[in-house]
Structure to design on (317 residues):
């Protein structure tokens, strides 16, 4: 089967899937988008609504339609958002979704592999690292083609938080959040740099009277996701942008280095778990993982993330 690189299948069309769909269309990142949901009416409705928008002068004439798993057979990219999320007021820990969403990942992946092992798979369903590990290890799918969005979203949040502190464009900020997409995610401070000004003297450069409180920033990166959920009911805009960043990297063969989740293969001495570290993404998926320098404290935090995800995997029935 010839792969249509411009064809994207989005599985799960609720808050996250619909946001992904609309960003893909707005950024003109696909020529065809097929939507799948166990609730077929939802997929149909989202497809209809978005397809109407393609008549506008600002839109590209993308073929947006409700699909079936057969659509995977020539798709370039499949984006998985199926499965419930944490709801407002619930225990703030994505890992407690593990059992429910592992079952859903099983049913979704069992269908996908009937039609393709060619498409790039972008994983969004939580708990992201558990889902990424399961999908990567249980189906004999080429591992380099499975990209968990991982801590790219926390990295966006981190950059926004620092940008607001120093009143600077977040795109001037470099630095990764690594580890689990969830409560044990941590900013690797040793990777942070604002426009070549480094990290240590930022308060002076930006005439910031109050010294940067790293612990408060670390807590905020994790807490802010639950703030969004409690305030608006779900998160979808940031993650849709993160998914599009990966899609762009794949479509344009960019060789971009982004933090994302995949099964670790002995990096930092860790195996049998998926976590986010910086990885290079191009048209053939993940082509390199980088064991960047981390301080002893950061290494310890990465190990803690590995333990936390591993114990959720072990607890999965
Ligand atoms: P939601 O509960 O509103 O929607 C889930 C959708 O999945 C529903 O439309 C449902 O019908 C569908 N679905 C369930 N089982 C299915 C199956 N077997 N096949 C196909 N579709 C199925 O959830 P949401 O708010 O849209 O979030 C979706 C997922 O994305 C959640 O797991 C959430 O935690 C996750 N998420 C991840 C990130 C991230 O950074 N990785 C960010 C936000 C949300």
């Amino acid at each position: 089967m010839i792969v249509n690189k411009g064809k994207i299948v989005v599985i799960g069309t609720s808050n996250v899937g619909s946001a992904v769909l609309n960003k893909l269309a707005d950024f003109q990142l696909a020529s065809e988008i097929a939507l799948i949901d166990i609730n077929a009416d939802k997929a149909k409705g989202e497809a209809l609504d978005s397809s109407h928008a393609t008549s506008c002068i600002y839109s590209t004439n993308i073929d947006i339609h409700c699909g079936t798993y057969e659509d995977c057979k020539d798709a370039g990219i499949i984006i998985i958002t199926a499965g419930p999320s944490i709801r407002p007021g619930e225990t703030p820990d994505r890992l407690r979704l593990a059992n429910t969403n592992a079952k859903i990942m099983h049913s979704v992946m069992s269908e996908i592999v009937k039609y393709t092992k060619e498409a790039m798979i972008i994983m969004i369903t939580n708990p992201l690292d558990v889902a990424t590990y399961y999908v990567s290890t249980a189906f004999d799918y080429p591992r380099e083609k499975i990209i968990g969005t991982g801590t790219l979203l926390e990295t966006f949040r981190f950059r926004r938080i620092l940008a607001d502190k120093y009143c600077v464009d977040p795109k001037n900020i470099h630095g990764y959040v690594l580890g689990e997409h969830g409560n044990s995610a941590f900013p690797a401070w040793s990777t942070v740099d604002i426009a070549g000004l480094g990290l240590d003297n930022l308060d002076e450069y930006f005439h910031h009277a109050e010294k940067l409180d790293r612990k408060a920033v670390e807590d905020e990166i994790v807490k802010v996701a639950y703030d969004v959920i409690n305030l608006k009911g779900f998160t979808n805009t940031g993650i849709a942008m993160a998914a599009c960043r990966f899609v762009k990297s794949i479509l344009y063969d960019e060789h971009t280095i982004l933090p994302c989740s995949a099964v670790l293969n002995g990096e930092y001495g860790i195996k049998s778990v998926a976590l986010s570290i910086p990885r290079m993404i191009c048209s053939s998926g993940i082509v390199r993982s980088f064991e960047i320098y981390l301080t002893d404290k950061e290494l310890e935090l990465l190990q803690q993330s590995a333990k936390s995800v591993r114990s959720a995997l072990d607890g999965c029935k």
About this structure: The chain has nine helices and 13 strands. The chain has a mean pLDDT of 97.
